[in-house]
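// run 5 | inverse folding | seed 20
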């Protein structure tokens, strides 16, 4: 909910969503200040682990109105993307908005606006703003490190993947990487040929989507079209056609996903035997598993490294440490001297007081918001970047534009009762079928097209972005990319 005239905005986070928000609000005449705890802009791209980078093609992961340079590789390395964000900042003249090395430690009401406590190496001061935009993403800066019995006895080194800045620290060591997501796969893959032994330990396998289906077709053509979006469990507000497809026409989407599973299982050879006769075949159907915390578009060679034995894969939980070993729940014992947890980050907003979290209705699966941006019970507080999609840069840019239009009154919001009803419907829909996770409230993924449509319709823009004589067919079969939204962000 936005109340009163917004002249100043404090944006917390200098990542993709924070920069896009500053660009859009500044164009509307709002004076913006971006606070970030890091000394360098970029958010997650400012300080990554060794070999980190974007896992999807660059035409899906770029600002719609500021394309990546042609010289940048198809799968953008992390340092290249950080440099690109620096260029975005300069191109849109928002560098003067930046206050880097400044951590927001507290936030509380001050009249119709907000008072923020901001801390740096010189101390703490208080600043005022009409609007606060939280653009810190889905997770905090606190690594998620499981508590494992006997860790204090282990004589080796225990790291989070974020601490592996240089793969040389793994040279000649016997390493166990824990996890099955992007960061775990990246660390395990780059450790091959450097470490003396590489183990990958994971409890749950997930469906790995190859960069090219059948080695020929970029995965976006098989996963990110409106046709595919119609095949997944229906969105909170489905069209009559989609509703019919998932009732009387249910066998069709069921068969579609079984064929996708067969393709992935065959192409990636997921039946390959690993430790204790296990394999890499996931338990859950792909249309459900795709909404888990881990959605895999693995680095090139990752699955091949497992099949060849260069990465010794163990489908098991962790039981305990000894002085020189890692004991798994399946009874295996791994002689290791380094354990790297690729287990992600904790969620949370440490600077939000408890009463504000209560007002936002924070739940174990996150905060549910109107359009994933606003809460009717907390005026002049917005979130940009709390929406997980395969085109997150585009999603965040659309959110930022939507928010700027709300701020200047170009979008008329529903009344509080209707906004709460919309939020409640979204919550019931997600909790009725999506896997439980700390970020479920923000999960969109394959539903991103429906969400983009909502934002565009609110802004009075046509959600059907394809042009030309074959536009209707392209809307159904051709995947969207960032450039399709260039004129609306």
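// decoded
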């Amino acid at each position: 909910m936005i109340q009163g005239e917004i002249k100043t905005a404090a944006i917390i986070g200098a990542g993709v969503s924070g920069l896009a928000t500053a660009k859009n609000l500044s164009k509307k005449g709002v004076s913006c200040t971006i606070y970030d705890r890091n000394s360098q802009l970029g958010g997650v791209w400012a300080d990554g682990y060794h070999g980190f980078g974007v896992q999807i093609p660059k035409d899906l992961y770029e600002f719609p109105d500021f394309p990546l340079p042609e010289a940048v590789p198809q799968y953008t390395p992390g340092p290249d993307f950080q440099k690109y964000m620096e260029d975005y900042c300069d191109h849109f003249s928002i560098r003067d908005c930046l206050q880097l090395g400044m951590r927001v430690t507290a936030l509380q009401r001050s009249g119709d606006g907000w008072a923020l406590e901001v801390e740096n190496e010189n101390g703490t001061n208080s600043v005022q703003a009409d609007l606060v935009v939280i653009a810190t993403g889905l997770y905090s800066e606190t690594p998620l490190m499981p508590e494992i019995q006997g860790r204090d006895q282990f004589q080796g080194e225990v790291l989070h993947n974020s601490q592996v800045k240089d793969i040389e620290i793994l040279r000649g060591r016997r390493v166990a990487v824990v996890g099955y997501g992007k960061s775990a796969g990246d660390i395990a893959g780059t450790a091959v040929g450097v470490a003396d032994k590489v183990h990958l330990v994971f409890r749950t396998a997930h469906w790995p989507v190859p960069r090219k289906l059948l080695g020929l077709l970029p995965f976006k053509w098989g996963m990110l079209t409106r046709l595919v979006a119609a095949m997944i469990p229906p969105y909170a507000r489905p069209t009559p056609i989609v509703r019919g497809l998932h009732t009387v026409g249910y066998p069709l989407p069921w068969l579609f996903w079984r064929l996708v599973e067969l393709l992935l299982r065959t192409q990636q050879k997921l039946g390959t035997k690993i430790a204790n006769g296990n394999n890499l075949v996931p338990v859950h159907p792909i249309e459900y598993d795709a909404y888990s915390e881990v959605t895999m578009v693995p680095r090139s060679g990752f699955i091949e490294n497992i099949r060849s034995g260069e990465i010794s894969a163990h489908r098991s939980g962790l039981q305990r440490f000894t002085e020189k070993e890692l004991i798994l729940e399946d009874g295996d014992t791994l002689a290791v001297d380094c354990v790297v947890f690729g287990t992600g980050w904790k969620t949370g907003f440490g600077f939000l007081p408890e009463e504000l979290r209560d007002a936002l209705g924070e739940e174990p699966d996150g905060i549910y918001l109107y359009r994933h941006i606003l809460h009717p019970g907390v005026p002049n507080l917005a979130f940009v970047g709390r929406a997980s999609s395969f085109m997150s840069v585009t999603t965040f840019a659309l959110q930022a534009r939507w928010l700027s239009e709300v701020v200047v009154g170009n979008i008329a919001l529903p009344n509080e009762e209707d906004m709460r009803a919309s939020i409640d419907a979204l919550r019931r829909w997600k909790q009725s079928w999506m896997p439980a996770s700390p970020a479920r409230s923000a999960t969109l993924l394959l539903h991103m097209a429906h969400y983009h449509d909502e934002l565009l319709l609110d802004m009075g823009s046509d959600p059907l972005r394809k042009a030309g004589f074959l536009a209707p067919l392209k809307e159904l079969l051709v995947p969207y990319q960032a450039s399709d939204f260039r004129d609306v962000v």
